[in-house]
Amino acid sequence: MLPAAKTHLSKLIDQIASGKEKEFVISRNGKPVARVLPIAKVEISRRIGIAKGEFTIPEDIDQSKQEIARLFNGETSDDAPAA
């Protein structure tokens, strides 16, 4: 199938992608050397909210936001305003 694959690879791939063919084997000198299969489809339709109910958000989640912002800005603890 190697000469056919070289000449018709695009068509062969289209047949796999459309489901007309489930797989095809590429041979060299009459011996199989490769199998072309479709990649399994992965369901990604529900990504947002996938972890809903898996954990709880602490009440004090924003307690450190000023410190985190200061660190993102490259400031050190010496640069922190006095409490």
Automatic annotation (TrEMBL):
> Entry's SUPFAM superfamilies?
YefM-like
What is the purpose of this protein? Answer: Antitoxin component of a type II toxin-antitoxin (TA) system.
Native organism taxonomy: Bacteria, Pseudomonadati, Pseudomonadota, Gammaproteobacteria, Methylococcales
Q: What is this protein called?
A: Antitoxin
What organism is listed for this UniProt entry?
Methylocaldum marinum
Instruction: Write down the InterPro entries for this protein, in alphabetical order.
Output: Antitoxin_Phd/YefM, YefM-like_sf
Q: What's the short name of a Pfam family annotated to this entry?
A: PhdYeFM_antitox
Give the UniProt family note.
Belongs to the phD/YefM antitoxin family.
Domain of life, per UniProt, equals: Bacteria
